[in-house]
Amino acid sequence: MSGVTLTKTSHKATEIPGLDSRTKKYILASTGALTLWSIFSSVLSAGAISAIIITFILYTFYWGYALVTKNPLVLRLLIFGTIAGLLELFADNYLVHNIDSLVYPEGELMIWSSPVYMPFAWSNVLTQLGFIGILLSRKYNLWVASALLAIAGGMYIPLYEYLAEGANWWVYKNNVIMIFNAPLYVILCEAFIAFSLPFLITYATRHHWQRTIPLGIAEGAWIMLGVIVTYAIAG
């Protein structure tokens, strides 16, 4: 009897509140919707308005879903992503002004050196990637899950940057090594960022939601570190 009890307890300990089939369906569907919208925007050269529309639709949807369903996982992902997205403004400023690599179209409504939608776009992407990281960590150990997410993130970036330039969202310049429209350092940086997510989000799910705040700050610092290190290596 004691062996059965211990097995059940161990299984329950691995459960993640908020990770259910409905949430999985909505988050993965929203990830596909973002990709399709990016393709649509690129084909039409739609400009900043298309980025603003999809960013705030997804951001509002995630918060609505988290609050209406009281989903603790999505809530933690949003807190984490919003804080990290706001701190990513420092990395954006570094790319725009310090190394003169990233260029946004003129005439956009800006926060510092970034379009006004950018922190929320980062929140959306980190919510999606963080959720996928959780799914991977349920199947593999954290190191393997992190490596797989880093590879996936690095492979996806050339496509996304290609679509972003076609949509007139932003463009990179003064870079020696490019894959499609993505500088090599950006690809490496995105892999660097994705690698951290399974560890941080898994930790967040096991503690009170307030612990997510310093984790979001840590991720923002990790993004800045990633930009500096990868540019030094491959910029």
Keyword list:
235 residues; mainly alpha; two-stranded antiparallel ribbon; two-stranded antiparallel sheet
Present the secondary structure layout:
Elements: H1 2-13, H2 21-44, H3 48-68, H4 72-98, E1 102-103, E2 110-111, E3 114-115, H5 118-139, H6 142-166, E4 171-172, E5 178-179, E6 182-183, H7 184-205, H8 212-234
Antiparallel strand pairs: 1-4, 2-3, 5-6
Helix pairs in contact: 2-3, 2-5, 2-6, 3-4, 3-5, 4-5, 4-8, 5-6, 5-7, 6-7, 7-8
Structural account:
By secondary structure, the chain is mostly helical. The longest helix has 27 residues, at 72-98. α4 crosses α5 (118-139), α5 (118-139) packs across α7 and α7 packs antiparallel against α8 (212-234). 43% of the residues are buried. It has helices at 2-13, 21-44, 48-68, 72-98, 118-139, 142-166, 184-205, 212-234, and strands spanning 102-103, 110-111, 114-115, 171-172, 178-179, 182-183. The protein has a two-stranded antiparallel ribbon. Strands 2-3 form a two-stranded antiparallel sheet. The chain has 8 helices and 6 strands, in the order ααααβββααβββαα. Helix content is 75%, strand content 5%. A hairpin with a 2-residue loop joins β5 (178-179) and β6. It has one domain.
